[in-house]
Amino acid sequence: MSKPAHRAGGAPKAAVDSDICPVCKSSRYLNPNMKFLVNPECYHKMCESCVDRIFSHGPAPCPIAGCKRTLRKMRFREQTFEDLKVEREVDIRRRVAKVFNKREEDFETLKDYNDYLETVEEVTWNLILKIDVEATERRLRQFEEAQKAELNPNVARRETQSDSSAPSDASRVVLKKGATQRKALSASSGNTPNPYSSQDGTEDTGFTFRGLKKRTAPEPQKPFDPYSGWSVEPQFYILQDDYNVEWLTQSKNDIQHLAGGYNIKDFYSQALCEAFSGFGVFIEDEIVARDRQVSGDETLATQMAATAGTGAKDVRMDDVF
Amino acid sequence: MRLTEDDLYRTSTQYKHWSFTPSQLAAQRRTTNIQASERVKAAVARQRAQRSLLDASASESERAGSGVENGGDTPVRVDKEVNCLTVTEEKRLVDVFCARALDLGKFLKFPTEVTATGIQFLRRFYLFNSPMTYEPQTISPCAMFVANKVENHGLPLERYVAVLPNMTTDKVLAPEYLLVQGLRFNFQVRHPFNGLKGGHLEMIEMARGNANLLPNAEKTKEQLQQEMLQLPRKPNGPAQSLSVAQLEKRIENAYGFASIVLKGPAQLTDAYFLYTPSQIWFTAHLLADEPLTLFYLSAKVPTSPIHSKIISTLRSCADLLSSHSSYTTDQISKEEKVAREKKEKEEVSALIKKAKHCRDPDKIDLVKLNLAQKRDAVAGGSLEESKAKRRKLEREGYQKESDDFWGPELKKANGAKVA
Ligand SMILES: [Zn+2]
Ligand SMILES: [Zn+2]
Q1: SS3 A212
Q2: Among partner residues A282, A312, A320, which is closest to B181 by beta-carbon distance?
Q3: Which residue has the higher pLDDT, A237 or B62?
Q4: Cys-Cys crosslink for B223: which of B181, B191, B193, B219, Cβ 3.0 to 4.6 Å?
Q5: What was the pLDDT predicted at B23?
Q6: Domain boundaries, chain A
Q7: A312 touches chain B (CB under 8 A)
Q8: Can you tell me the distance from the alpha carbon of B151 to that of B194, in angstroms, rounded to the nearest whole number?
Q9: Per-residue model confidence as pLDDT tens digits over A18-49
């Protein structure tokens, strides 16, 4: 990482340097279309054709002398900033910000929020300055997992069940890494206790922030109810499964009715409902009460219309002719 | 959130807009009558003033001219005060035409619901409109046709018109919008027919001793059945002991009578305005078999405060239904019946004659009025013709403009049939 800084001795040298691929030594002078790419794993520059040549057949170690990192072709890209230090810092900050995505309203007090920002900045600088990288990375990942689990408890439960054979959090993370690294890591962390897993058995979340409000997962969506909670509960009858009367037997067994999806029970429920629909509605009482509620305006209007008489048009509705 | 059957009924337009207390009903009819007669009087006075003006100018300018056209189709020629219909006469007239609509439904072999809906449309329409303004003769074929559509009967207009004498499609369709607006676009009419069927089903099951009981029922199914078998024929009559089959027969008879009441008197009175369909079918059943109906009622509503209220409502509805002339016709002697029918006929024809004399002259030819609302109307003869021509030219101009812009209409494939 310190290489570009070392090389930037003078302006003309830097210009020449940036025009020659450190791997194949071909220069831009001969190939004006040459493009340089970097991989955020180690930020070593090389030309596009070198990337194609070396990494087309899968992950391979970096060809720059002294760097043994395994690179993948997919992650090569053009650099955005001239200074690769800036490029790297931006990448790190982006990654950290994705995990630490809390806002001020997620905290109880402003002080808690500021403490949180302080921690985030510390973590970021640890990564940038490569202090304690391994541990910091792991804590970062733990924190991310914990956040996810908080939002969706089902996923967390499922994972802990499937991971019962591999209880440590670190080993789960390792699965995502390259095969060689996985071996090395499992060998190293095989019997050493995880310094960050807490002793009392509660799950380690990487970071804990004071005053951070607990997030609650949104309610799972309920099955759609077309009646939005309303239901009909008859008070005067209880529907029977079947009613036996002569005049119904024909339609009951009529093949045309059956083929059309007609269900005789629908007839029962409709007939019974209509039999008592409005049974306890006493128009004389209810209409008067209702009209009194509506206020006397309307009756006044009709009275006026009646006295006006020649007002020709009806009050209640316009005459079409 | 639970709804009872009653709440369901309260959501209907029949409850919201077409239910009245007797006094409201009377007041509304009075209002309609006053408005209509004022309008008729004003229109007639205006027409007379116009005619006298015409007469005067005609006699001055062309004394020789004898055949001056002076409103040949105005019904009121006699220059006396217009004798308007009273509220009672109006109602009687509407009732007469409702009865005729009933016959029309029978003649057309319409299902009961269709005829009943048509009749209710008529009754509702004439609650806010007077037969003086719009003749029932013109409105009622339209009401029946709209009911035919609303109730999904689906008799095509051409066939409908072909069956009726002196009827054209224009005559049926001209008042359609007027009618529908008069109904305030409330097309659903709740009838008691299906309810009666439902009640009948339950009574039959109860007679067999396997009706589902309400949670607060005091008796068992068997007790109900036993008591039902011992019900007296007449109120306060001696107890009987029927077999189940006999009881079923009794229930069926009651159903038959009740359904006749529902198809006749229930349609021809104000029952639909004053009571709910459920109360109407209960009443019809009460008229058919009182002990049975009261027993069924007490099984449903065991001595709660609403029980007595329901009974009194049913009784008043029963008074209304049984007071109608079509209810008692089979209980009187033949001569009496003939005499009564003859007397009724005379009354009705006199009434129709009177109605003819107080027609609103502005609203006589609905077909023409309807046409005038549409484009290319040539209502005023030659004077309007130039206007129509100009309109036609304008329309062609617009058409051409849009064709220039959008391209002409796609040509139909040759030989494609235009249905
Ligand atoms: Zn190269
Ligand atoms: Zn490298």
Answers
A1: strand
A2: A320
A3: A237
A4: B219
A5: 92
A6: 13-79, 82-162+193-220, 234-277
A7: yes
A8: 14
A9: 678 889 988 888 888 888 999 998 899 999 99
Greater model confidence, A302 or B93: B93
- Ligand 1 geometric centre to CA of A8 (Å): 20
Q: Which of B289, B287, B310 is nearest to B298 (CA)?
A: B310
The bridge status of strand A70-71 relative to strand A60-61 is antiparallel
Taking CB atoms and an 8 Å cut-off, how many pairs form between chains A and B? Answer: 177
Q: Which residues contact B202 (CB under 8 A, 6 or more apart)?
A: A237, A243, A272, A275, B211, B296
Contact (CB<8Å) A287/B363 = no
List pLDDT tens digits, range B197-237: 999 999 999 998 888 888 777 788 888 888 888 888 888 88
Residue B149 near residue B118, CB atoms below 8 Å: no
Q: Which residues surround ligand 1, an ion (CB under 5 A)?
A: A 21, 23-24, 47, 50
Residues B310-317 have a mean pLDDT of 92
Query: Residue A208 region, left (φ>0) first, then alpha (ψ -120 to 50), else beta?
Result: beta
Q: What is the pLDDT of residues A166-206, one digit of tens each?
A: 444 444 444 444 444 444 444 444 444 444 444 444 556 77
Residue B346 has pLDDT above 60, yes or no: yes
Please indicate whether, in this complex, the C-beta atoms of A278 and B300 are within 8 angstroms of each other. Answer: no
Contact at CB, A287 and B21, closer than 8 angstroms: yes
Q: Is B396 left (phi over 0), alpha (psi -120 to 50) or beta?
A: alpha
pLDDT score for A202:
52
User: A81 φ, ψ to 5°?
Assistant: -105, 145
Is residue A2's pLDDT more than 80?
no
Residue of chain B whose Cα is closest to the Cα of A241? B212
Task: Say whether residue A240 is in contact with chain B using an 8 A CB cutoff.
Answer: yes
Sign of the Cα torsion B30, B31, B33, B34 reads positive
Contact list in B for residue A241 (CB cut-off 8 A) is none
Q: From 3.40.50.300, 3.30.365.10, 3.30.40.10, 3.20.20.105, which CATH number describes the A13-79 domain?
A: 3.30.40.10
Q: How far is the CA of A44 from the centre of ligand 1 (A)?
A: 12
Which residue from B5, B42, B182 is facing A317, i.e. has the nearest CB? B182
Tell me the per-residue pLDDT of B115-166, one tens digit each, with 9 for 90 and over. 999 999 999 999 999 998 888 988 999 999 999 999 999 899 999 999 888 8
Chain A partners within 8 Å of B275 (Cβ): 283
Chain B nearest-CA distance from A109, in A, is 42
Per-residue pLDDT tens digits for B13-52:
999 999 999 999 999 999 999 988 888 888 888 888 888 8
Smallest CA–CA distance, residue B401 to chain A, in Å, is 33
The residue of A236, A264, A283, A315 whose CB has the most chain B CBs within 10 angstroms, and thus the best one to mutate to test that interface, is: A283
Of the given ranges (A131-145, A165-179, A226-240), which has the lowest mean pLDDT? A165-179
Whether this model's ipTM surpasses 0.90 comes out as no
pLDDT confidence of residue A298 = 53
- Please answer whether residues A38 and A21 qualify as being in contact, where contact means their C-beta atoms are separated by less than 8 angstroms: no
Beta-carbon contacts of A72 under 8 Å, excluding residues fewer than 6 positions away, are A39, A55, A58, A59
